[in-house]
Structures are given as structure tokens and as C-alpha cells.
Amino acid sequence: MVINNQIYFTNLDNTDANEITNTLFPYAGYHGDNFATTYMEMSPFSVMMSSFSDLTPSSAYVNTYVSPAGSIYSSTPLEDILPILSKQKPHKHDFFELMFVLDGEIYVSIENHRHLYPKGSGCILNRQVMHYEERQGQHRILFLQISYDFLKQIYSDLCLSFFDVEKKQLSGDIMLFLQSNLFKENTNEKAYVDFIPPSADFQVFDAVHDYFDIIFRETLSPDSNSSRKIKNAIVELFDFISSSENFSTTPVKIGSDVENYLYSEIVRVMEESCGRISRSQLSEKLNYSGAYLNDICKKHSGLSLYNLGMTYCIKEAARLLSESSYTVSEVEAYLGFTNSTQFYKEFKKAYGVTPAKYKRRTG
Fold first, then answer.
1. If 0-12 CB within 10 Å is exposed, 13-18 middle and 19+ buried, where does residue 190 land?
2. Are 192 and 126 in contact (CB under 8 A)?
3. Cβ(94)–Cβ(148) under 8 Å?
4. N or C, which end of the chain is more exposed by having fewer CB within 10 Å?
């Protein structure tokens, strides 16, 4: 289907571009005249292939995205997407992201420093690193996005290994990076790992592509063993990248300050309270003025304390509607809403549908 000069294919029931985007990428990406500063995702993982070409007048920006929540293919003419991409700003995720350059090259701005990633190279970022990809030239990139909980489960399963040869998997730079970022309490450390092939070995490129291909195929056409196959493919991908025979890995840690620490504390409290905490309560809990905490929140997320809290609140509402037997009114009461109109308005703004319709679709 074609929506606003953009070609869409999706396996979701709805046909509205905004509903599709809000279903798959709540609180993420481009909204009106602004890019979100923190990207969030409901699925335990997702895989995306993004291609960009500005070599001919008919070139386009193409994305193929798959996750357990649904899949989408979109192709947008450059004349339509370039004005949008020109407005993008540094962002971070509530998930870990592995990027691999399949073809061409791309500059990525990481904490205001430009990094060139040629074909066959990539990086894995933790949830604190501010970054954005500079879309120009010609390139194809693969992204693997994994939630904190799912990645922690995968790593914990690896720690149950019985044999020494298996335990060696836990000693590489990638695994040490995961251990550091998954099991430190309230970490506000900005960290990532670069991986660069020692030579233009097409077998290495193909192997990484094959791991992504397994995840793509098993997600699009799942069977009774697909979850296990996907977990295995992710573990094997990390292990493959960690091997010095395939890649040279460089762990990078970026210094943090008081503001970064305070923002991480704000996020921690928001997560613990499902976003249902007032500015005065937050001020009392963290021993800083509400106005100062609000300024930090805006600086790091682009959202006020109220709006950031609402993102976590509505995200929890969506989880309860899809994973529990709670009715819409029970979820509404559980999260402390006294005004049904406000709850419906906030939920539909985030997910593009009413809470009842969302529950029927996902529950």
C-alpha cells in the first residue's frame, strides 16, 4: 500500500501509517516536527535492515523491520525523507543495539564524536550512549535491538554452561561489556564496543549476515522451536564477533557527570513507580529541587518529568493489557487514573488505538 507517497507492507491488521508506527515503535522515532530523544520498544528484540542511496533521483530510504510484535517494510523517496532526517538529533534507547554495516559506509555521531564505520564493521551500544546515524551516500545496515530483560536472560543462560570450552564465551570484550552493563546496579556509564574486521574477508561478512537471516526468518515464520533458534543465533553472533580471528574489538567507556547520574536515578524511580510519581515526591526522594530535576529530564530525554512519567505509565498499561487478565478499567485503576478520558487520550496518543482495541489485538 502507498501512504503519503511512502510504500508500506506490513503483517499488522491496521492500514494507517501512524497506527503501524505507534504499534511497533511506541515513543520512538519521528513525531510531527520532533524526533524522540529516548527510543522505546515493547518487544524483547527486533531486527532491522536499513538501506539508503542518494546516487540517483529515484533513490529511496528503505527499512525492513521484524519483531514478535509485527513486521513492516517501508520505502520512502529521498525528496520526502531528507527534510525529516535533517531534523534528527542524538538519541538513546531503553534497549541494547548492535549495528553492522553490510554494504557501503556510514558516519555515526557518538556522544558528539563522528565515527566512520566501513563495510563489515559495527558497534554495540549500551542504553546510555547518545548517538545518531548520518544518512548520506549509499549503505545497507543491519540492526539488532535487544531489551534489557531478554539480554539478561540470554547472558544468565550462558552462565549455566558446564564445560570450560563453553565458559570461554564469557571472556571476550562483547561478553564482558554485557556483564558490566547488565549486572551493575543503577549504572549511568556510557559504554560501547567497536568491532572491525582485520581484513576484507567476505566469509566473515556472510557469516554475520547469516545470523541475522536466521533471526529474520524465524521471527517472520515462527514454529515451535523459533524462540530457541533465535536465542542461539544471538549467542553465536556475539561469540563470532568476540573472536579475534574475525574481528578486532575495542571497548570504549565515556566519562559521566552528576547530571547523568541524576537522570539515571530519575529513570530508575520512574521505572519502579510505573511513572506514577509527582514532581514533589521525586524531589523528596532524590533530594533535589523539582525544577532542577525537570531541567535535567528535558535535557537528557527531551521530555518533562510529567511526560517521561507518562511514557512509563502507558508502557506498563500496555504490558498489563497484553499479558494479564486485567480489564481496561482495572488497569486504569491500578495505575491511579481517576479520569478515564485522560487515560484513553494518553494511551491512544502512544499506541494509535484505544486500550480496549489494544487488548483485543494483543491479549
1. buried
2. yes
3. yes
4. N
Number of neighbouring beta carbons within 10 Å of residue 157 = 11
The continuous run of DSSP H or E covering 113 comes out as strand 113-118
- b/e burial code for range 279-315 (CB count within 10 A of at least 16 → b): beebbeebebebeebbebbeebbbbebeebbbbbbbb
| pTM: predicted TM-score of the whole model, two decimal places | 0.69
Going by C-alpha positions, the residue among 203, 215, 189, 227 that lies closest to residue 92 is 189
Residues 6+ apart with CB under 8 A from 185: none
Q: Are 225 and 214 in contact (CB under 8 A)?
A: no
In sequence order, the 6+-apart residues with CB closer than 8 A to the CB of 312 are 270, 271, 273, 274, 275
206 neighbors 55 (Cβ within 8 angstroms):
no
Query: Rounded to the nearest 5 degrees, what angle is found at the Cα of 274, between the Cα atoms of 268 and 280?
Result: 75
Distance CA 255, CA 251 (A): 13
SS (H, E, C) 178-219: HHHHHCCCCCCCEEEEEEECCCCCHHHHHHHHHHHHHHHHHH
Per-residue pLDDT of the chain (363 residues), as tens digits, is 444 555 656 666 655 655 655 555 554 444 444 555 778 777 899 999 999 887 666 688 888 999 998 888 888 888 877 777 777 778 888 899 999 999 999 989 888 778 889 999 999 999 989 898 988 788 999 999 999 999 999 988 888 777 777 766 677 888 889 988 988 765 678 889 999 888 777 788 899 999 999 999 999 999 999 999 999 999 999 989 988 889 999 888 775 566 777 888 898 899 899 999 999 999 888 878 888 888 888 877 778 899 889 989 998 999 999 889 899 999 999 999 988 899 999 998 888 889 999 888 876
What's the CA gap between 230 and 158, in Å, rounded?
14
